[in-house]
Amino acid sequence: MNKFPRKETLLETFQWRIEESCDDIAFKFNDEEITYREYDQKGNQVANGIISEGCIPNSRVAVLAKNSVMYAEILFGSIKSRTALVGLNWRLAGPEVVFVVNDSESEVLFVGPDFYELVDSIKDEFTHVKKIIAMDDTHNNWESYETWRNSSDTSDPGLKGHADDDVIQLYTSGTTGHPKGVRLTNKNLNASTPMVEETWGRDWHEKSVNFVLSPLFHIAGSNIVIMGIVFGCKNIVIPEPDPGRILHLIDTEKIETAFMVPALIQFLLNHPDAKTTDFSSLRQIVYGASPISEDTLLRAIDVMGCEFWQVYGLTETSGIGTTLAPEHHEPSLGKLRSCGQKYSGVDIKIVDDNGNEVPTGEVGEITIKSTIIMKGYWHRDEANSESIVDGWFHTGDAGYFDDEDFLYIYDRVKDMIISGGENIYPAEVENALMSHPDIIDAAAVGVPDDKWGETVKGFVILKEGVELTEQDIIASTKEKIASYKCPTSINFIQEMPRNPSGKILRRELREPYWDDKGRNVS
Fold this sequence. Notes:
Elements: H1 10-21, E1 25-29, E2 32-35, H2 36-52, E3 60-64, H3 69-80, E4 84-87, H4 94-104, E5 106-111, H5 116-122, E6 131-134, E7 143-144, H6 145-150, E8 166-172, E9 180-185, H7 186-198, E10 209-212, H8 219-230, E11 234-237, H9 243-252, E12 257-260, H10 262-270, E13 284-288, H11 294-304, E14 307-312, E15 322-324, E16 341-342, E17 346-351, E18 364-370, E19 376-377, H12 381-387, E20 388-389, E21 392-401, E22 407-412, E23 417-419, E24 422-424, H13 426-434, E25 439-449, E26 453-462, H14 470-477, E27 489-492, H15 506-514
Parallel strand pairs: 1-11, 3-4, 3-5, 4-8, 5-6, 6-7, 10-11, 10-12, 12-13, 13-14, 26-27
Antiparallel strand pairs: 1-2, 8-9, 9-19, 14-15, 15-16, 17-18, 18-21, 20-21, 21-22, 23-24, 25-26
């Protein structure tokens, strides 16, 4: 029997939950708690405020802020106003923020205090923003969020919405160096819910204490908040992952469920407080967004003493694809290098360059077909036709199935680097490297890193007679792109490996660093 009724829109699902859990705690942030009833009322105020700014259905509103209850209120308000929420990666550099805000045509921008200075320096470049709202009251010119929100009525705006309405638009890096807006609809997100209910959400229930650790501009963070609400959890929110604080809250808040990227799991295990933390309340860790080493995983299972679920999915697939259940984490089964089996309602094929399905055990591109596949990329018709063919989304990941239908990720067809759960495309890094006047050619690849899973290594060819240090080049890239995308090391080379058509052979650059790994991702 389903835990909750199937609805056409996420708004209807949320409204059902409000009625069921109106007096339960929905969110806790520091010492602030709000009930589901209060969350509903504040969502109404945000929706009415968005509408009063002239936003019509299908408009975009953006948030550049760290996690907070206010962020969650804006999510609900955007749903109630039938606008789509654009989550901005707060690690982006100024030019990248300008691109996403303008590309999304966002009309309202909510900004956290950590980013006031950045936005002040670029706000004149925004093309569609009508209003900038400060998330606290410390900005001299922008209206504060609470003042803005509280000036609106608490009555429901009464906009029903449709299954095909865009709900959130999250940006994923592109092979051209420009990010693309992934459009996820009510239909996509509602389709995810029964899949979660059958797998890692099967033991979630009203008042479960759920830890929101991933940033809400990530599909993982969005999913954990949405599922936390749908299942009626008490959701503990912190601005950003802090290992010491996380361990403290696991103990004091009696955390039951959490999603963590592998790098964060490793940080927690290596923190001195891990030895004294009471993990007994933990029932489940869901992990994903990047590969995890077997040693780290087995150590985490031993130290935390709870069940572990691995998840594999992409922003374009609403974060859904495959999951590795706790019973398959026994080392003797030989499945720890796998990312699990597909959810019910998801079809996965491994195909060759011509789109033909390959035999079991043979490596090819992973393609996914399901209701959870995005509506498409925002204003990217060519990219849509290339990535979604006959309903099958081409992930750009290479992998294979074993004879028990467990999926293994082998490599990345599109050369994407995943560092600490963040997606980085070499083209972005290479564009930043090539912007230096003394670099005549450049390439970027992912190499193994004990802390982050992968880190970026740059390969550069300098102009004749020029001398630059590794740090000179790294510092230069930090002026162009977010720090997490920048190389952490540079190799100076004399010749760039290329195929006859001139394409950089990144595999040749990458292979020496992965020889002893058995695959080309960590």
